[in-house]
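lol so apparently i was supposed to do this last week
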Amino acid sequence: MEQWKTAAFRRLATPLTTVVGAATAKAFVGLNCETLGDLLRLLPRHLMSGTDVTDIQALIAANRGSEEYVAVMARVARVDVKGTVPKQRLEVRLTDGRGWLGATFFGRASLIQYWQRLLSQSDRGIFAGKLGWFNDSPQLAHPAFVMITPDGFVGSAQGAKMAAQVSTGSFIGLYPQTAKLPTWTVAESIDLGLAHMAGLSDPMPAWVRDAAHVSELEQAFRHVHQPSSESEFEQGRRRLLFDEAFATQVAMAYRRNDASTHTAVPRNGVAQGLLGAFDERLPFALTQEQLAAGEAIRSELARTRPMQRLLQGEVGSGKTVVALRAMLTVVDSGGQACLVAPTEVLAQQQADTVTHLLGDLAQGGLLSGGFGTEIVVLTGSMTASAKGEALGRIASGQAGIIIGTHAVLSKAVAFRDLGLVVIDEQHRFGVEQRNSLAERGAARPHVLVMTATPIPRSVAMTVFGDLDVSTLTNPPQGRAEVTTTVVDVQLHPTWVDRAWARVGEEVARGRQAYVVAPRIDLTDAHEGASVVELAERLSSGPLHGLRLAVLHGRLPATEKADIMARFTRGDIDVLVATSMIEVGLDQPNATMMVICDADRFGVSQLHQLRGRIGRGAFPGVCLLLTSAEDGTPARERLEAVAATRDGFALAQADLAQRREGDVLGMSQSGRRSSLRLLRVLDHADLIELARDIARQVVERDRAMTDAGVADYVHDIEARADADLAEAA
Ligand code: ADP
Ligand code: MG
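anyway here it is w/ magnesium ion bound
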């Protein structure tokens, strides 16, 4: 059970079942709503006054090519009964005065008559359903609907509440919805939810509310859901946005405060140590930026305060080498360094990379004239005896470098002297996670976080307020060109054949290729091509005779490792994979990547996927296959990726669309993430304000005695943990 200190947080944590009943609560899972708090933070997508109609053309433009559940308020222009009994259907033409939208109903004659009667009660109604395409014109098949009449709503028993809103001249919120939850059921549930919050006092300290000029919580909930004006809605929304900014910034401010009270063991390195030997053996010269980052890290490792540094740089920018040099400094100083990867596969790959980079220095001091260090891998899927042996080496200090998933940070692992923790791929890992490792004993390890999702510095300062930042912007020389092209598979179906032919040509030249698809197989919930089917189709068709292998997350760990090893050795020509290859695989011989249903991936994901090719001397070709039409947001994202390989430019474009939760590293699908509304760029001012206030909160109350503040912090951390557990 959660230990809430305020009645408001306790109430907000109420399971939805208690509020709306089990059946409706189940339907809300599709909207990521599990508690009363989730429900009340579900904001209307559109706010309409009683006299508005939906802009149908804009709606269509925004949803072209996809099959979203939409709700429209529209006029009924025509109602026609088509066909003959018993196969009749009702065809309805909806309009906003400019655009048109069809709606079709099928059913028995008596039902057809009934619907026809309802539809004729008024010339205006709200229609909710899945937007589909029929002969290229937009259609709602069997939408749920309510008609707005002077006497209220007809068509749905639940429409009554909304009818009341319209008749008082106020606004109707159209909510995000699913097949099982039309917008008015959402509205009705929220109405029940609001009653549960009545009379509870606001958990946010009054002085904070005053300083931020935000309204009181219960009032904010009422204002966003039942506004009597647009400015009332905006006021309410601002409070809910501020809640999210406040929670994260206060949590960080306390963490920063906490960190500043801790000490770390200085790790000074030695003059003639492993680091020196490593640098001597490096087959290339470090770039200026690598040297600068290394210098910043070196000086921080030598301090008595724990280092908290973010090392950001695109895939292939040379972060691993920088991190390894930091690890060697710590090993040279007699301590241990631990590298944490987001998945087992990546942990194993990191271990291979590090072992390879270290060469004979990874021999535990047996070769190389008496020095060297031992690398130990620790993952969840190891056998008990292998794990026991690894734990022994970690505890005795025989292992200088430990590599694993976040399980290495659990209490079960005893280090002899942990001096540095390097966390790879922060964006997958979670800001909150960092601290779980910091709570080992009096002196804390130094922490280096690496991320390949570049974050503009201004944002990094605001969001990662508790980290110092080093950035690698210029990749080491010797990178090859990569040309990216968007292939419209509807418009140019023959280009797809050409793509496969091109894969064949690359392989004939001795190169290798990746084919990426969004799904594993048909049982996946996502739409889009699946790797299993695709591999079958390719190997019996256009890529017949090539050595193909399938790689995805549901394969056993040993099989995954084996396939990657074979690809790295060159024993596989074409790897047909899910996005799991997005980080870690390093095969400079791979020159081509075909991404199917590319619109199913996000910008940064595409950028990272593409980072797998052009890693060697050979120029690369990346093809983004899509059926997203020209002009749609999905298509624009792809065009942006094709237009540049500058990860920072892409990140800027992408960031504007993302929620802060994603940037903070909480999983994007994270169901519990409380950062539902906040967007980093849009709300930079509010985040800044929250940051200032958070600093004052900590100054006034270092021990976190305020019950409301404690609940905000506890809430955000619990959600982040839950998201992480789910992602693991
Ligand atoms: P990241 O971890 O940022 O994705 P890596 O550290 O894995 O990047 O580096 C990518 C590749 O570039 C590796 O093969 C690495 O050995 C190589 N590399 C790193 N730094 C340099 C450099 N200064 N000059 C040439 N090659 C480098
Ligand atoms: Mg790396």
